[in-house]
């Protein structure tokens, strides 16, 4: 089967994954308004292409946190890759290493960070962190990933509690017994009876986290800190004031607060507030190369894909993720050329038709 666009991978994954796994990956919170709007919002944006600009050579390279990547699309942190493919996050890591882009490993990976690094020793990686009630647990994993050569910490701030994902509740979704949250083997495994979410003891994440925990995190690491889950200019300003190195504009793929903005709709006010003081990235709803172009035109330095990576895994493991990334790269290059951009530095707000927004 020829895979032409990311939707082909979505259809394949839907057909081949178990219903419970598909539902977990696809889930949005409540009525899924924000999840769906993440995609629709790109379709409301129109481009203003420029012509006759010699686009015979095009360069998609960019940098994130000072490191060059081959194109401005990385992999967002998503949990439980072994549900989609037996080699799980190791396959994802190999694919991103091969394509020379950034892979953000989830705290809830089903391969350990050591296994991931061994699988793709030269890959460029950031680690996504949740803050636990037991700060020692968070501190230990921070020191582990630092020693392993992870280049940044991505602090997810939009999950004080897990959003209400109706199908997961109906399916009583949980990790099957042969899979584990490998980074915390023996710690997160629910061996005794008690409330749990997805097979993980409930209440491990700390809903009391606040800006002072950013200072705490800075006190235990020298890695750059990137806050994931900011949707307003007020919080963007606070992030800058707290000395973090980046922001990921994200609504967690619409899996947390339903009724919040599409991430692309929240981007401009954040970029305007940050004024280049730190890098601003975005995830949510990126499915085509022109989505990438629009996000960059509105000021994102790089975007990240969540679900499309697990669809690629479900299709053919490492090869599937490579294909997903390659298709996005090819589409992005074409969209750039068709709008008259030869390199990412030439992408700017003039490309956006604001009267139609
Ligand atoms: C199945 C799934 C699991 C996720 N797990 C995590 C996670 O462990 N940590 C995190 O910060 N975000 C997690 N996210 C959110 C993603 O990082 C990202 O924000 C979102 O998927 C982007 O939207 P997209 O799927 O439309 O590309 C998850 C998303 C999905 C779909
Ligand atoms: C007990 C919390 C599990 C969160 C799993 C990963 C995640 O963020 C998701 O959106 O799913």
UniProtKB/TrEMBL annotation:
Residues of the active site: 252 (proton acceptor)
Pfam families: FMN_dh
Co-factor(s): FMN
Keyword line: Flavoprotein, FMN, Oxidoreductase
Domain of life assignment: Eukaryota
Residues reported in the UniProt entry to bind FMN: 77-79, 106, 128, 130, 156, 228, 250, 283-287, 306-307
BP GO annotations: fatty acid alpha-oxidation
Catalysed reaction equations from the record: a (2S)-2-hydroxycarboxylate + O2 = a 2-oxocarboxylate + H2O2; 2-hydroxyoctanoate + O2 = 2-oxooctanoate + H2O2
Protein name listed in UniProt: (S)-2-hydroxy-acid oxidase
Annotated organism of origin: Seriola dumerili
Taxonomic lineage from the root: Eukaryota, Metazoa, Chordata, Craniata, Vertebrata
